[in-house]
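ok so for the tutorial part 2 we go from a plain amino acid sequence to predicted C-alpha coordinates. step 1 is just haveing the sequence, like this:
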Amino acid sequence: MPSRFTIADFSATDQPNGDGRIRTRLSIRSYNQTIRAHQHNYYQIVIPLHGAIQIELSNTNGDQLLKERIGPDKGVIIDQQLIHRFSADEKARFLVADLDLLPGVVSQWPHALFQLSTSLKAYCQFIELQLNSALNPELEQDIGRLFVQLLVQQQSSGRQDERIVRVMEYLQQDLSVTPELDKLAQLACLSLSQYKNLFRQIVGCPTGQYLLQLRMEKAKALLAHTDIPIAIIAQQVGYQNASAFSRRFADFYGQSPKDYRH
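step 2 — the prediction. this is what the C-alpha coordinates look like for a chain of 262 residues:
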Protein backbone atom coordinates (compact mmCIF):
# COMPACT_ATOMS: atom_id res chain seq x y z
CA MET A 1 0.00 0.00 0.00
CA PRO A 2 1.19 3.55 -0.68
CA SER A 3 2.25 5.43 2.43
CA ARG A 4 0.97 9.00 2.67
CA PHE A 5 3.06 11.40 4.73
CA THR A 6 1.21 14.68 4.22
CA ILE A 7 -1.73 15.44 1.96
CA ALA A 8 -2.89 18.78 0.59
CA ASP A 9 -6.40 19.28 -0.77
CA PHE A 10 -7.17 22.43 -2.71
CA SER A 11 -8.68 23.86 -5.86
CA ALA A 12 -6.32 25.23 -8.49
CA THR A 13 -7.34 27.48 -11.37
CA ASP A 14 -5.71 26.56 -14.68
CA GLN A 15 -5.58 30.14 -15.95
CA PRO A 16 -3.49 29.53 -19.10
CA ASN A 17 -6.14 27.25 -20.62
CA GLY A 18 -9.39 28.46 -19.06
CA ASP A 19 -10.44 25.02 -17.86
CA GLY A 20 -12.01 26.42 -14.70
CA ARG A 21 -11.28 24.99 -11.30
CA ILE A 22 -9.28 21.80 -11.01
CA ARG A 23 -9.68 19.80 -7.84
CA THR A 24 -6.24 18.47 -6.94
CA ARG A 25 -4.90 16.26 -4.16
CA LEU A 26 -1.14 16.24 -3.58
CA SER A 27 0.68 13.62 -1.55
CA ILE A 28 4.14 12.21 -0.98
CA ARG A 29 4.05 8.44 -1.40
CA SER A 30 6.19 5.34 -1.34
CA TYR A 31 5.62 1.95 -2.95
CA ASN A 32 7.24 -1.48 -2.72
CA GLN A 33 8.34 -4.27 -5.02
CA THR A 34 4.93 -5.96 -4.89
CA ILE A 35 3.20 -5.16 -8.18
CA ARG A 36 -0.43 -4.13 -7.70
CA ALA A 37 -2.90 -3.40 -10.48
CA HIS A 38 -5.64 -0.84 -9.94
CA GLN A 39 -7.61 1.93 -11.63
CA HIS A 40 -9.62 4.96 -10.55
CA ASN A 41 -12.02 7.57 -11.90
CA TYR A 42 -9.64 10.52 -11.67
CA TYR A 43 -6.41 11.52 -13.39
CA GLN A 44 -3.10 10.98 -11.67
CA ILE A 45 0.35 12.45 -12.16
CA VAL A 46 3.33 10.62 -10.66
CA ILE A 47 6.70 12.36 -10.37
CA PRO A 48 9.69 10.53 -8.81
CA LEU A 49 11.48 12.61 -6.19
CA HIS A 50 14.01 10.04 -4.99
CA GLY A 51 14.64 6.78 -6.80
CA ALA A 52 12.73 5.34 -9.73
CA ILE A 53 9.45 3.56 -10.36
CA GLN A 54 8.52 0.76 -12.76
CA ILE A 55 5.12 1.53 -14.23
CA GLU A 56 2.84 -0.29 -16.66
CA LEU A 57 -0.32 1.18 -18.19
CA SER A 58 -3.01 -0.78 -20.01
CA ASN A 59 -6.57 -0.16 -21.13
CA THR A 60 -9.66 -2.08 -20.07
CA ASN A 61 -9.15 -4.49 -22.97
CA GLY A 62 -5.78 -5.49 -21.55
CA ASP A 63 -3.73 -3.78 -24.28
CA GLN A 64 -0.43 -2.56 -22.85
CA LEU A 65 0.07 1.17 -23.52
CA LEU A 66 3.26 1.80 -21.59
CA LYS A 67 5.94 -0.12 -19.73
CA GLU A 68 8.70 2.11 -18.46
CA ARG A 69 11.12 2.71 -15.62
CA ILE A 70 10.85 6.38 -14.69
CA GLY A 71 13.44 8.36 -12.77
CA PRO A 72 13.48 11.87 -11.21
CA ASP A 73 13.73 13.72 -14.53
CA LYS A 74 10.36 12.49 -15.83
CA GLY A 75 6.72 12.33 -14.88
CA VAL A 76 3.82 10.19 -16.05
CA ILE A 77 0.16 11.03 -16.56
CA ILE A 78 -2.37 8.27 -15.88
CA ASP A 79 -5.74 8.78 -17.53
CA GLN A 80 -9.03 7.95 -15.87
CA GLN A 81 -9.90 4.24 -15.80
CA LEU A 82 -6.51 3.13 -17.12
CA ILE A 83 -5.22 0.03 -15.35
CA HIS A 84 -1.79 0.76 -13.91
CA ARG A 85 0.82 -1.23 -12.02
CA PHE A 86 3.58 0.22 -9.84
CA SER A 87 6.66 -1.23 -8.23
CA ALA A 88 9.56 0.58 -6.58
CA ASP A 89 12.14 0.36 -3.85
CA GLU A 90 10.53 1.14 -0.51
CA LYS A 91 13.02 3.95 0.10
CA ALA A 92 11.98 5.79 -3.06
CA ARG A 93 9.60 8.75 -2.75
CA PHE A 94 7.11 10.16 -5.24
CA LEU A 95 4.99 13.27 -5.61
CA VAL A 96 1.50 12.18 -6.65
CA ALA A 97 -1.17 14.59 -7.87
CA ASP A 98 -4.77 13.34 -8.18
CA LEU A 99 -6.86 15.59 -10.44
CA ASP A 100 -10.50 15.50 -11.46
CA LEU A 101 -9.59 17.31 -14.71
CA LEU A 102 -6.49 17.72 -16.84
CA PRO A 103 -5.46 21.17 -18.08
CA GLY A 104 -6.39 21.61 -21.74
CA VAL A 105 -2.85 21.55 -23.12
CA VAL A 106 -1.89 18.54 -21.01
CA SER A 107 -4.95 16.55 -22.11
CA GLN A 108 -3.75 16.92 -25.73
CA TRP A 109 -0.25 15.59 -25.14
CA PRO A 110 0.38 12.58 -27.38
CA HIS A 111 2.33 10.63 -24.75
CA ALA A 112 1.85 9.76 -21.09
CA LEU A 113 5.45 10.65 -20.25
CA PHE A 114 6.78 14.17 -19.94
CA GLN A 115 10.20 15.62 -19.24
CA LEU A 116 10.50 17.82 -16.16
CA SER A 117 11.93 21.28 -16.67
CA THR A 118 14.54 22.50 -14.22
CA SER A 119 12.00 24.82 -12.62
CA LEU A 120 9.31 22.15 -12.15
CA LYS A 121 11.86 19.68 -10.78
CA ALA A 122 13.03 22.23 -8.20
CA TYR A 123 9.44 23.14 -7.37
CA CYS A 124 8.53 19.50 -6.73
CA GLN A 125 11.41 19.30 -4.27
CA PHE A 126 10.01 22.36 -2.50
CA ILE A 127 6.56 20.75 -2.38
CA GLU A 128 8.07 17.70 -0.71
CA LEU A 129 9.72 19.84 1.97
CA GLN A 130 6.57 21.84 2.58
CA LEU A 131 4.15 18.93 2.75
CA ASN A 132 6.46 16.99 5.04
CA SER A 133 7.03 19.88 7.44
CA ALA A 134 3.77 21.73 8.10
CA LEU A 135 0.05 21.95 7.37
CA ASN A 136 -0.80 25.34 5.86
CA PRO A 137 -4.02 25.24 3.78
CA GLU A 138 -3.69 28.81 2.49
CA LEU A 139 -0.13 28.24 1.29
CA GLU A 140 -1.12 24.88 -0.19
CA GLN A 141 -3.71 26.60 -2.37
CA ASP A 142 -0.93 28.75 -3.86
CA ILE A 143 1.28 25.67 -4.20
CA GLY A 144 -1.44 23.93 -6.20
CA ARG A 145 -2.04 26.84 -8.54
CA LEU A 146 1.65 27.17 -9.35
CA PHE A 147 2.03 23.40 -9.80
CA VAL A 148 -0.70 23.40 -12.47
CA GLN A 149 0.77 26.46 -14.19
CA LEU A 150 4.21 24.87 -14.33
CA LEU A 151 2.72 21.58 -15.51
CA VAL A 152 1.16 23.11 -18.61
CA GLN A 153 4.57 24.48 -19.60
CA GLN A 154 6.11 21.01 -19.80
CA GLN A 155 6.46 19.05 -23.01
CA SER A 156 5.28 15.53 -23.68
CA SER A 157 8.37 13.43 -24.28
CA GLY A 158 7.20 9.95 -25.18
CA ARG A 159 9.91 7.30 -25.00
CA GLN A 160 12.97 9.46 -25.44
CA ASP A 161 16.28 7.86 -26.18
CA GLU A 162 18.34 8.04 -22.99
CA ARG A 163 21.48 8.78 -25.02
CA ILE A 164 19.92 11.97 -26.36
CA VAL A 165 18.43 12.86 -22.98
CA ARG A 166 21.96 12.67 -21.60
CA VAL A 167 23.15 15.15 -24.22
CA MET A 168 20.22 17.51 -23.63
CA GLU A 169 20.92 17.57 -19.89
CA TYR A 170 24.59 18.22 -20.57
CA LEU A 171 23.79 21.17 -22.83
CA GLN A 172 21.43 22.66 -20.25
CA GLN A 173 24.05 22.60 -17.49
CA ASP A 174 26.16 25.47 -18.87
CA LEU A 175 24.83 27.57 -21.73
CA SER A 176 28.01 29.63 -21.88
CA VAL A 177 29.82 26.69 -23.49
CA THR A 178 29.48 25.51 -27.09
CA PRO A 179 30.54 21.83 -27.08
CA GLU A 180 31.96 20.25 -30.20
CA LEU A 181 29.57 17.82 -31.87
CA ASP A 182 32.24 15.11 -31.66
CA LYS A 183 32.20 15.44 -27.88
CA LEU A 184 28.39 15.22 -27.76
CA ALA A 185 28.43 12.16 -30.01
CA GLN A 186 30.97 10.56 -27.68
CA LEU A 187 28.75 11.39 -24.68
CA ALA A 188 25.87 9.64 -26.46
CA CYS A 189 28.10 6.66 -27.36
CA LEU A 190 27.34 7.18 -31.05
CA SER A 191 29.25 7.98 -34.20
CA LEU A 192 28.97 11.60 -35.34
CA SER A 193 26.57 10.79 -38.17
CA GLN A 194 24.45 8.54 -35.95
CA TYR A 195 24.30 11.25 -33.31
CA LYS A 196 23.23 13.97 -35.76
CA ASN A 197 20.46 11.82 -37.22
CA LEU A 198 19.20 10.56 -33.86
CA PHE A 199 19.22 14.01 -32.22
CA ARG A 200 17.19 15.51 -35.06
CA GLN A 201 14.81 12.54 -34.98
CA ILE A 202 14.20 12.77 -31.22
CA VAL A 203 14.31 16.54 -30.67
CA GLY A 204 13.00 17.70 -34.04
CA CYS A 205 15.88 20.04 -34.87
CA PRO A 206 19.69 20.02 -35.08
CA THR A 207 21.81 20.45 -31.96
CA GLY A 208 22.75 24.02 -32.83
CA GLN A 209 19.13 25.11 -33.15
CA TYR A 210 18.21 23.41 -29.86
CA LEU A 211 21.11 25.12 -28.08
CA LEU A 212 20.11 28.48 -29.58
CA GLN A 213 16.58 28.07 -28.26
CA LEU A 214 17.86 27.28 -24.77
CA ARG A 215 20.15 30.30 -24.85
CA MET A 216 17.50 32.72 -26.03
CA GLU A 217 14.96 31.52 -23.46
CA LYS A 218 17.55 31.90 -20.69
CA ALA A 219 18.55 35.36 -21.92
CA LYS A 220 14.91 36.47 -22.08
CA ALA A 221 14.32 35.31 -18.50
CA LEU A 222 17.44 37.11 -17.22
CA LEU A 223 16.48 40.32 -19.02
CA ALA A 224 12.98 40.21 -17.57
CA HIS A 225 13.78 39.21 -14.00
CA THR A 226 17.25 40.57 -13.20
CA ASP A 227 19.29 43.74 -13.60
CA ILE A 228 22.35 41.85 -14.86
CA PRO A 229 24.09 43.94 -17.56
CA ILE A 230 23.38 42.81 -21.10
CA ALA A 231 27.07 42.15 -21.75
CA ILE A 232 27.17 39.71 -18.80
CA ILE A 233 23.96 38.01 -19.92
CA ALA A 234 25.54 37.60 -23.35
CA GLN A 235 28.50 35.79 -21.78
CA GLN A 236 26.24 33.55 -19.70
CA VAL A 237 24.49 32.33 -22.84
CA GLY A 238 27.61 31.76 -24.93
CA TYR A 239 28.33 35.13 -26.57
CA GLN A 240 31.59 36.91 -25.82
CA ASN A 241 30.54 39.77 -28.07
CA ALA A 242 27.52 41.71 -26.79
CA SER A 243 26.74 43.09 -30.26
CA ALA A 244 26.59 39.59 -31.75
CA PHE A 245 24.27 38.54 -28.90
CA SER A 246 22.00 41.55 -29.48
CA ARG A 247 21.73 40.78 -33.20
CA ARG A 248 20.90 37.13 -32.51
CA PHE A 249 18.33 38.05 -29.85
CA ALA A 250 16.69 40.54 -32.22
CA ASP A 251 16.55 37.93 -34.99
CA PHE A 252 14.96 35.45 -32.56
CA TYR A 253 12.43 37.69 -30.80
CA GLY A 254 12.01 40.65 -33.15
CA GLN A 255 13.45 43.24 -30.75
CA SER A 256 16.81 44.01 -29.20
CA PRO A 257 17.67 43.00 -25.63
CA LYS A 258 17.66 46.65 -24.61
CA ASP A 259 14.19 47.25 -26.08
CA TYR A 260 12.87 44.04 -24.52
CA ARG A 261 14.14 45.00 -21.07
CA HIS A 262 12.43 48.39 -21.28
